[in-house]
Specification:
The complex is a heterodimer of chains A (about 325) and B (about 250). Chain A has about 325 residues and is an alpha+beta fold. Chain A has six helices and eleven strands. Helices cover about 15% and strands about 20% of the residues of chain A. In chain A, the strands form two sheets. A nine-stranded mixed barrel of chain A has the order 1-2-3-4-5-6-9-10-11. In chain A, strands 7-8 form a two-stranded antiparallel ribbon. In chain A, a hairpin with an 8-residue loop joins strand 10 and strand 11. The radius of gyration of chain A is 26 Å and the shape is globular. Chain B has about 250 residues and is α+β, with helices and mostly antiparallel strands. Chain B has a nine-stranded mixed β-barrel. Chain B is globular. About 10% of the residues of chain B have low confidence. The chains are: A alpha+beta (about 325), B alpha+beta (about 250). The interface between A and B is large, with 79 and 80 residues.
Chain lengths: ~325, ~250
């Protein structure tokens, strides 16, 4: 009997109560058939990935998302006033403090930094269903663990960690991950802050050998509107490391108990460096939200402040950084 | 009585199974492939979209200094050609930076509409450019190269599953007129192929985000594919649409 015939017979049993072949079988006692049907119907159906995002995804080196070429570069970060003042008070020498050397960068730094990523899944041993995906760590970034087994996010009072807590789901061919419980950190290496109330939504789109990751960060404390970042990676044959080397703190000129290096926001000496080096208006360098939209160009003087030529970090001759 | 309960349970289970197995892609309920690309669209890309310049601000909102080619894997020949760029010289072709390989990085707005049932039209207000994404078999590129070249398109959609409505658009563009990959004279050649993937995601404010992944291949001027992803926010209407002509230098 073909599958269509089985289907037809089963459908028949849903009509008027005539004694079809399956009803007669049921009378005979094989209720197991119905139990199997129910079990199959109720079993989770989204545990298998729609596409495979695991593997080693190399950096393309084409997108400069780090925005860390000069100390006061907040271009493209929609900061509110509190976030801007906090950013201007930041001094990179804070990283020389022994207690801050290993604080690391936020978990979404994998779409900002220079390296590729390795993604793998963990499966349960009986059915092989995916329990979690992990975006491997770098030495200055915690891994992103995406739980796929339906567990809830912890209480808002639960501990915040460098990697945060993330659950995932498939929407068609897209893996969607929601992250909460991140530690306070920086949304960019140059000092724009990230509060511990920030949340993140990440989407993974695979198109052949290209993986594009969309990250949207919401922070009610320091951002005027959600920050959007995208980064593409390319599948590579050589395996990337799933972990970074351990961070080892050491004396770098500052002793425990020393003051925290900082600037008075209004006196930050680097506030005009983006203008002098690249012709970027101060409002844009300071992350004013309106500078993220095309109409801001009308407020800019055409090319007036552009330097004659590039002097540092001008070309790309080496392959993208790998680990 | 037991048989009746078993029958009811089986009907519910059968309905559940059938519901989960039917693809949810639009236009497929009648059976067989949809007649047009418009009917087959697994995702709606139409509307007004504004570039959200949260990345590479200094390369996109201002003209970078001469020699600033960071991130672009130029060949030695590409570098040589780029170094001939002179920002002070009058540009005879101001639309060189608005060609298909670079247009999605230009700060501006997009307007996407269906020109006909098998052609998606994308207009940009910055530079007044029009791109036509034609679905169906590729046609020979006999015409002269243009800034936006010749584009063929196809939908990619999830085959099965309860959320199969999600999908994306793939566009391959060739026959482009040589221009600038970056406004400061970084070149691309007539042999360039541009492959783009268009995806849509929800925005936390209730709107949508359009993500465009662009892969530029040019054996003449690039050592390897140049891959960037750009994003746009959906706008409710065209009230901020602001057509402006091409400009060579900002």
């Amino acid at each position: 009997m073909g599958s269509d015939a089985v289907h037809g017979s089963m459908v028949n049993t849903c009509g008027p109560a005539e004694a079809g072949p399956y009803v007669r079988a049921a009378k005979a006692g094989p209720y197991v058939l119905w139990l199997v049907l129910v079990a199959v119907a109720l079993a989770p159906r989204t545990t298998y990935a729609q596409v495979d995002i695991t593997g080693s995804w190399g950096a393309t080196g084409a997108e400069d998302l780090a925005g860390d070429s000069v100390p006061v570069d907040y271009t493209g970060v929609p900061l509110n006033q509190e976030g801007r003042l906090r950013a201007l008070s930041y001094n990179e020498s804070q990283y020389s403090m022994i207690e801050r050397q290993c604080q690391g960068l936020p978990v979404f730094y994998f779409v900002q930094g220079p390296f590729g990523i390795r993604i793998w899944n963990t499966t349960e041993p009986v059915k092989g269903n995916t329990i979690s995906y992990t975006v491997g760590a770098w030495e200055n970034r915690a891994p992103l663990v995406i739980w796929m087994d339906g567990r809830p996010h912890p209480s808002k009072y639960a501990e915040h960690t460098r990697g945060g807590f993330t659950t995932g789901r498939w929407e068609g061919n897209t893996l969607v991950a929601d992250t909460t419980h991140m530690k306070a950190n920086f949304i960019r290496k140059t000092g724009p802050p990230l509060s511990d109330e920030a949340t993140m939504t990440t989407r993974f789109y695979r198109h052949g050998d290209v993986l594009t990751v969309l990250v949207i960060v919401e922070d009610p404390i320091y951002l005027a509107e959600p920050q959007i970042m995208t980064r593409s990676f390319q599948l590579q044959n050589t395996e990337l490391s799933p972990v970074g080397p351990p961070c080892v703190s050491a004396y770098q000129g500052r002793m425990p108990g020393d003051s925290v290096p900082h600037y008075i926001p209004e006196q930050n000496p680097f506030v005009d460096e983006m203008t002098e080096r690249y012709g970027v208006p101060r409002d844009a360098a300071l992350g004013m939200p309106e500078t993220l939209y095309p109409e801001y160009r009308k407020k800019m003087k055409p090319g007036s402040a552009r330097p004659a030529g590039c002097t540092v970090n001008c070309t790309t001759t080496a392959p993208p950084a790998q680990r | 009585m037991t048989v009746r309960i078993a029958r009811i349970v089986s009907c519910v289970a059968l309905a559940w199974l059938v519901a989960g197995a039917v693809p949810h892609a639009q236009g497929r309920r009648g059976g067989g492939p949809p007649a047009t690309a418009r009917a087959a669209a697994p995702v709606d890309l139409t509307g007004y979209w504004v570039a959200f310049i949260s990345e590479e601000w200094r390369y996109r909102m201002v003209t970078p200094p001469k020699g600033d080619y960071r991130g672009i894997p130029l060949t030695p020949e590409g570098t040589r050609v780029a170094n001939t760029w002179n920002p002070a010289a009058p540009e005879s072709e101001p639309c060189k930076a608005y060609g298909a390989p670079a247009i999605m990085r230009i700060p501006g707005r997009l307007h996407v509409v269906w020109q006909d049932d098998n052609t998606l039209r994308l207009d940009t207000d910055a530079g007044n450019q029009t791109r036509l994404f034609r679905f169906g078999p590729a046609t020979s590129a006999a015409a002269a190269p243009t800034w936006q070249g010749t584009s063929t398109a196809r939908w990619e959609s999830a085959a099965t599953g309860p959320r199969a409505a999600a999908g994306s658009l793939t566009v391959v563009t060739t026959n482009v007129r040589p221009g600038y990959l970056r406004r400061n004279g970084v070149p691309y050649s007539v042999d360039t192929t541009v492959t783009e993937y268009f995806d849509v995601a929800p925005h936390p404010s209730g709107g949508q985000v359009l993500i465009v992944t662009t892969v530029v291949e040019d054996s003449q001027y690039l050592q390897r594919p140049y891959i960037v992803s750009s994003h746009f926010k959906k706008e409710p209407d065209g009230s901020k649409w602001d057509p402006t002509p091409c400009t060579a230098v900002w």
